[in-house]
């Protein structure tokens, strides 16, 4: 019996609204602050090292969430864990705007990002369990809204800060997370008693870390995220160093994310139609190479073109999220693969903002940092070609 037959249509609609609202809130804590780092630093006093650590917090919390979320899902069920994710996100976003020192800023950011990390992991299994016949369509919707929630904050961060101060500019995004709490509550209240949708206990699943599918997806996901968060953190600095102003830097971060929205519209659908989506991987690697070369050698010329190319590079991100469901047969497999690939992947991604900044400080230029990113793009190519093969997790994790 499918999840659709067990679950009333009205509840499915509520769950769909919950997925969409949650998706919007899964990156707001990241991209709302990067255009404001200089302004926040003026009040809280942190330098390049502090910015590097702050840039590493998202991937670290997403990695920890990837490790613990499958266990939470097995214990409490999908909806309860998703609700908890949005509560943590709302609480962290709201309290971060009141930070008066670096430890408070890091702690509240970690709270918000822990919630968003849990949401990253739990949403794909929600789609797999409740909408198994619409995985490609709803994956497209989920990733598209996620990208919208990524690109809007940096676009409005500086104008909001200029009009109302950086605290309002950071705190306003708690409203979206609070809105996402409501449909999860409704879905839970409509189903009294214990959650029958908890993913199968651990003993019924294989050992995900034994699967080449899992490791390939984790490496592709991790190195894609490493490059993405390095750009989120340092693109404004690269551009202001080339003579552009801070508002332009924020606009380019938003453009970088907006191009990801374009990727989100076609990558899941194309991946669902191709038995082997290797062309998407190759195209992403070529786009990364063009964008990074332009930003390194001509950041003050054709800047928009380089940012668009670099923004097409992370097309392997929506591809990875889609493959979580396309390379599994069950919600248990989806949850395990989602947790493993994002846990390991975001742990790898932690190195992105930190090493990129440290290499820049050590060398005084951007050549060595971009060389580091080039190596990771090579890993995306190799791992992406492997996970593109039509192998299922459940056939390889024994």
From TrEMBL:
One cellular component term from this protein's GO annotations in UniProt: plasma membrane
Sequence intervals crossing the membrane: 49-68, 80-98, 104-123, 135-156, 168-189, 213-235, 247-266, 278-298, 304-324, 336-360, 366-385
InterPro entries: MFS, MFS_Cyanate_Porter, MFS_dom, MFS_trans_sf
Subcellular compartments: Cell membrane
Keyword Endoplasmic reticulum: no
Domain Major facilitator superfamily (MFS) profile: 11-392
Keyword list, A-Z: Membrane, Transmembrane, Transmembrane helix
Main location as per UniProt: membrane
Highest taxon in the source lineage: Bacteria
Name of one Pfam family that matches: MFS_1
Topology class, membrane: Multi-pass membrane protein
UniProt GO molecular function: transmembrane transporter activity
Protein's name according to its UniProt entry: CP family cyanate transporter-like MFS transporter
Natural source organism: Calidifontibacter indicus
């Amino acid at each position: 019996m499918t999840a659709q037959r067990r679950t009333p249509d009205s509840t499915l609609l509520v769950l769909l609204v919950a997925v969409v609202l949650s998706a919007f809130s899964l990156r707001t804590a990241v991209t709302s602050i990067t255009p404001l780092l200089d302004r926040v630093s003026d009040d809280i006093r942190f330098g390049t090292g502090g910015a590097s650590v702050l840039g590493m917090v998202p991937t670290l919390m997403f990695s920890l969430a990837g490790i613990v979320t499958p266990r939470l899902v097995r214990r409490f069920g999908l909806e309860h864990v998703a609700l908890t994710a949005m509560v943590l996100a709302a609480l962290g976003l709201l309290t971060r705007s009141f930070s008066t020192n670096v430890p408070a800023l890091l702690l509240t950011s970690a709270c918000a990002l822990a919630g968003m990390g849990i949401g990253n992991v739990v949403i794909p299994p929600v789609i797999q369990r409740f909408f198994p016949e619409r995985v490609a369509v709803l994956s497209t919707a989920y990733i598209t809204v996620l990208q919208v929630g990524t690109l809007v904050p940096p676009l409005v961060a500086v104008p909001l800060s200029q009009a109302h101060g950086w605290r309002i500019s950071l705190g306003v995004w708690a409203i979206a997370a609070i809105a996402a709490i409501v449909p999860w509550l409704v879905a839970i209240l409509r189903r009294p008693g214990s959650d029958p949708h908890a993913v199968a206990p651990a003993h019924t699943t294989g050992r995900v870390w034994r699967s080449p599918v899992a490791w390939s997806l984790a490496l592709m996901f991790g190195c894609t995220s490493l490059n993405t968060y390095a750009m989120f953190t340092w693109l404004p600095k690269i551009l202001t160093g080339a003579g552009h102003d801070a508002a332009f830097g924020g606009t380019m971060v938003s453009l970088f994310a907006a191009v990801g929205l374009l990727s989100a519209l076609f990558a899941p659908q194309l991946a669902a139609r191709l038995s082997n989506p290797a062309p998407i991987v190759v195209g992403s690697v070529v786009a990364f190479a063009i964008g990074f070369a332009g930003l390194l050698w001509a950041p003050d010329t054709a800047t928009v073109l380089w940012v668009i190319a670099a923004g097409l590079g992370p097309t392997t991100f929506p591809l990875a999220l889609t493959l979580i469901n396309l390379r599994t047969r069950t919600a248990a497999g989806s949850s395990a693969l989602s947790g493993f690939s994002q846990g390991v992947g975001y742990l790898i991604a932690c190195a992105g903002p930190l090493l990129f900044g440290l290499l820049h400080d050590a060398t005084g230029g951007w050549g060595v940092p971009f060389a580091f990113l080039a190596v990771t793009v090579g890993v995306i190519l190799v791992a992406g070609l492997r996970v593109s093969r039509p192998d299922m997790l459940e056939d390889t994790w024994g």
